Every structure is written in structure tokens, then in C-alpha cells.
Amino acid sequence: MFSVAVKDHIMIAHSFRGEVFGPARALHGATFVITTEYRSKDLDEDGIVIDIGKAIDVLAEVLAPLRYKNLDDLSEFKDQNTTTEYLARYVHTEVSNRVRSFFGGDLRVVLEESHVAWGSYEAPVGSE
Fold first, then answer.
1. Domain range for residue 92?
2. pTM value?
3. Could you list the pLDDT tens digit for every one of the 128 residues in the chain?
4. First-residue to last-residue Cα distance in the chain
5. Where do runs of H (alpha helix) occur along the chain?
6. How many domains does the chain have?
7. Which domain CATH number covers 102?
């Protein structure tokens, strides 16, 4: 399996509902380092998994509406706990929608919330 990965980051604010979240139920900030890893059994006719420039641009486009926002205020997250795992799936869906016309392999999205904790979501592009 071949793979290519690109990274970006966002700074957001959000809060959680539920006793399990303890003090994180209050509004707080988070910085996520996001990696999108494209995986394919084969290389394309140019000998690549995906054009790295396109992968960088797509990730930046997906993250732009979230940068420096309070996720609690965004309609797409209404009544949703924007956990690391949930956001990984959200980014996966948004990236998949943008790359499915030129990439058909697997996509893994990893959100690092610190140097010791992260969450991810992985599925074939277009499987949502």
C-alpha cells in the first residue's frame, strides 16, 4: 500500500455536553493538527498516489470555515459534541467530497489534540 500525507492545523473554541467531559463542558479553546493520509494499492499513470499540492489545497479549503471559530455557533454542528473523533469524520467527509473525482483509494484523517492524544477516522473515499 502506498500513501501520501499532508498536514495543517486549526485553532477553534467549543464546549461539550455530558458529565463524562468534566471541565471541558465549559467553553474552551483547542488547537488541532490535522493529517490527511491518502492510501492506494497502486500508483496512477504519473507514478503518484495523489498530487501533494492538490491535497494541501483541499485540506486548507475544508478547514478554512472552522479557523478561529466557536464550533458551538456553527449550524453544521448544532446539538453535536464536536469531539476529536467526530471532527475527524467530518473532515474525512468534506475532503472525500472534494477529491472523489480524482482519487479513489482510502483516506485516513488524524486530529492531534496534543502531543499525547489524537483521534482518527478512516474509510474509502466516497463511502459516506
1. 2-124
2. 0.95
3. 999 999 999 999 999 999 999 999 999 999 999 999 999 999 999 999 999 999 999 999 999 999 999 999 999 999 999 999 999 999 999 999 999 999 999 999 999 999 999 999 999 998 76
4. 22
5. 52-63, 84-99
6. 1
7. 3.30.479.10
